[in-house]
Design a protein that fits this description.
Structural class: alpha/beta
Largest sheet: 7 strands, parallel
Number of domains: 1
Radius of gyration: 16 Å
Bound molecules: adenosine monophosphate
CATH class: Alpha Beta
Strand order of the largest sheet: 4-3-2-1-5-6-7
CATH topology: Rossmann fold
Number of helices: 6
Helix content: 25-40%
Shape: globular
Order of helices and strands: EHEHEEHEHEHEH
Length: about 180
């Protein structure tokens, strides 16, 4: 598979438990071992900041996309050489989508939820066929995944949603996927 860049969607919250930051760090450590460019939201807060700082620490390629109005709130990450400032959230999402050959979702809030639901809906509509991976740490995404199953069960969709994404529980499980992608 020809996957050269990975878009990561995740929380911008600073208030979450330390275990989530550890999760983001471990995930980025693993990704750093592979030749893959990371694309993310450009800020220096929450899990987004943790991912970006770990990838930068390892001198690996990372691109940040941030809308002008969030520069202050989400603290532009000056460690990232490749930062794009865009006009609004729609443009950010567009770039995050376009620049990634695959998508990885870590725990996050409504922003993350919107981003991942959009790429999933687009995949169902056959607008792309890029891999989508949920990092379902401590079953964080299970209620959403259950809802997807329910939608299918009662026929609100005609696609087997489970075929549209992969679910992993631990960052370590990424190794297998990244190895496959680098072939
Ligand atoms: P959250 O998961 O809510 O912590 O947000 C993760 C990232 O998504 C943050 O950088 C938010 O600014 C961003 N975000 C929030 N709402 C949206 C949206 N509607 N479209 C795109 N990004 C968003």
């Amino acid at each position: 598979m020809n996957i050269k860049s990975l878009t990561i969607y995740c929380s911008a919250s600073q208030k979450i438990d330390k275990k989530f930051f550890k999760l983001a760090r471990e995930t980025a450590e693993i990704i750093s071992k592979y030749k893959i460019r990371v694309v993310y939201g450009g800020g220096n807060v929450g899990l987004m900041g943790e991912i970006a700082n770990t990838i930068s620490y390892h001198n690996k390629e990372i691109i940040g996309i941030i809308p002008k109005f969030l520069i202050k709130k989400e603290k532009l990450n000056f460690k990232i050489k490749n930062l794009k400032v865009v006009n609004d959230l729609t443009k950010r999402k567009e770039q995050l989508f376009k620049l990634g050959d695959a998508f990885l979702v870590l725990p996050g809030g409504t922003g993350t939820l919107e981003e991942i639901t959009e790429v999933l809906s687009w995949k169902i509509l056959k607008l792309h066929n890029k891999p989508i991976i949920f990092l379902n740490f401590e079953n964080y995404w299970s209620p959403l995944l259950k809802q997807f199953e329910n939608m299918i069960k009662i026929k609100f969709g005609n696609k087997n949603l489970q075929n549209q994404y992969q679910v992993i529980k631990k960052p370590k499980e990424l190794e297998k996927i990244l190895k496959l992608w680098s072939k």
